[in-house]
Design a protein that fits this description.
Elements lengths: L7 H23 L29 H9 L19 H12 L21 E6 L7 E6 L2 E6 L3 E2 L3 E6 L3 E6 L4 E6 L4
Antiparallel strand pairs: 1-2, 2-3, 4-5, 5-6, 6-7
């Protein structure tokens, strides 16, 4: 098993760097923590800043310029207290609410659902010279190559085949649908 101690030169450099890191660590611990040097002038007594020498002027001209900036967004102004002015649409809604409730529309009975969609997918067609066209249909995990008048899965009859659509009839529900070409 190798420990990485084969290269004597690298081991010596590692020992020197570890000793240097140890000295720096010991020096940091023995000094009582980091020393802060601020940019404020220090007084002679206790290291506190001399408050008489710090500039404490308030620039009112900059504040006046900031106060003149007007918010022109479409949302509420964060710097104005009180109610927000209404937009024309909100005013119309408030006026309608003051007039009273609107009579409810009569509830219509639910419409019967149409026949379920045909679960075939049309992926393309082929036509050899002198033969009728055939289409590629997917049903579940299987792909069928069928022509006009043939059945898919014993239930769906192919009525017509075009370049972009296939007309299919469900023999159980007598539902006829056009299946669009799916571009893969």
């Amino acid at each position: 098993m190798k420990l990485g101690l084969e290269n004597r030169k690298k081991v010596m450099w590692l020992a020197v760097l570890m000793a240097l890191a140890g000295l720096l660590f010991w020096n940091e611990l023995s000094s009582g923590g980091p020393k802060f040097t601020g940019s404020a002038p220090q007084a002679q007594n206790g290291g506190l800043p001399d408050l008489n020498r710090i500039e404490a002027r308030l620039h009112t001209s900059a504040l006046d310029r900031l106060q003149q900036v007007r918010y022109r967004g479409s949302r509420r102004d964060l710097f104005v207290a009180g109610p927000q002015a209404m937009t024309p649409l909100q005013a119309a809604g408030a006026a309608a609410a003051r007039r009273g409730p609107i009579a409810p529309h009569p509830v219509l009975p639910p419409q019967p659902a149409g026949p379920p969609p045909i679960p075939l997918r049309f992926y393309g067609y082929t036509q050899r010279a002198g033969q009728p066209p055939q289409c590629f249909l997917q049903f579940g995990g299987k792909i069928f190559i069928v022509g006009t008048g043939e059945r898919v899965a014993g239930r769906y009859v192919i009525l017509s085949i075009n370049a972009n659509t296939v007309q299919v009839r469900d023999q159980v529900t007598q539902n006829t649908q056009f299946l669009p070409l799916i571009h893969a």
